[in-house]
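Propose amino acids for all 122 sites.
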């Protein structure tokens, strides 16, 4: 009889504990799926995506300007036949690597031409 009572009490305690855990998980999931929280997460994701897009755009712009101004060299031009290029320990195609160097124009007192209309007219 004591065994049965022990198992009954243990089962009841486990049931109550399991119910409380399940109730907390359901409440947390419901709070996470509330319209305000979904809108906030969506807003944050869109904001992060726009920021990442702007960073990528600026990097690509800098690369294209460097190519236009002659400050970008292709690594493929400097390699001999059979040479390999490694980035982070992995072999890559030489055309995937761009080396940038800064060129200063001394005629303008060390100022760089940023491609503005005023700079192009001068």
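Proposal:
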């Amino acid at each position: 009889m004591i065994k049965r009572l022990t198992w009954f009490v243990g089962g009841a305690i486990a049931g109550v504990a399991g119910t409380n855990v399940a109730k907390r998980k359901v409440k947390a999931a419901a709070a996470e799926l509330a319209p305000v929280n979904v809108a906030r997460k969506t807003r944050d994701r869109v904001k992060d995506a726009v920021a990442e897009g702007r960073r990528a755009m600026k990097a690509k712009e800098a690369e294209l300007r460097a190519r236009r101004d002659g400050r970008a060299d292709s690594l493929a031009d400097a390699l001999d036949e059979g040479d390999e290029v490694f980035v982070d320990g992995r072999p890559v195609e030489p055309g995937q690597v761009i080396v940038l160097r800064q060129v200063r124009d001394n005629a303008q007192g060390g100022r760089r031409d940023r491609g503005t209309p005023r700079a192009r007219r001068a």
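The first helix runs from residue 2 to 32. The helical segments are 2-32, 35-69, 75-78, 117-121.
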